[in-house]
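Hey L., structure's done. Input below.
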Amino acid sequence: MSLEEVARRAGVSTATVSRVLNNLDVVKPSTRARVLKAIAELNYHPNLHARTLAGGRSNTIGMIASNLENPFFFDVFRALDSEARAHGYEVVVAHTDYDPERLVRSVRLMIGRRVAGLAVVVSEMDASLINELRAARTPCVFYDVGRPQERMANIRVNYRRGIERLVEYLHDLGHRRLAFVGHHSTLGPTSEREIAFLDTVKRFPEMEWRTQADRDSFEGGRLAALRILSGGFQPTAIICVNDIMAVGVLRALRDRGLRIPEDVSVTGFDNIRLAEYCEPPLTTVHIPRDEIGRLAFAALVPDRDLPNVAGQEIVLEPEVVLRASTARART
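Output:
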């Protein structure tokens, strides 16, 4: 079905049909009614991409995420989508699975769609993409990667402080053998958590520690924990890079007949809903995903009802949430 067929059915020009689709007031009410009737009869759906090219603007916002299997990324999307819909925008999402090549393709696809703005919520980044986005003059907001500049904002979390608080808390509980379970240790935001762990445990000479990494998933957490246990190291506490890996660690410990937290304490990071409802409920670090989504929209589509944060860097402070997965170290 084409624009021309709608125009023939309504007895008008294609330009008139286009004016109706773009809700322009220059069309007479009787003519508008005729065009809308023809659209309904023919079940015509406009080519939104073509309309964007013609009008030079879009009511679509793009979001690129590293791993939509991780509820953290989905929570950010949901908050961004809610804010966008409230202001008349739609959100289209791409998923990279931490693959830099997929990130490049996704960014170029979003530029090609002429999105009104782009939220890049990833742990991987290709520096050349910053230049492409700047040349395309696409408003962007990055989470934890990139630097603020014209049309580009950055939202990041003080991961170091969150990890420091976890290590200090476990040390106060008497834990002296700690393990860290991470993933994709070469990526900036996730490696920052491991680096913070190593820097903090080194402040305590009596501490022993091990690190292990696997895929960002429940299974990845389970496998990483099993490798730590199989290596002969017996941690009294395990700090995990995020909550979904921590749930995998809980499974591995139970499979080995270890009690949580009597034998091993476990902590996560992010405070996704699952952390509250798993067994036992998970001690973790809260990251405000709703606020990240709202701030991302405010950076992309400045509005008098929202703070204008375009071109700024916003640093969020994490909070430790204590639950039943941690306790004093066994003697």
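Residues 71-86 form the longest helix (16 residues). The mean pLDDT is 88.

-- N.
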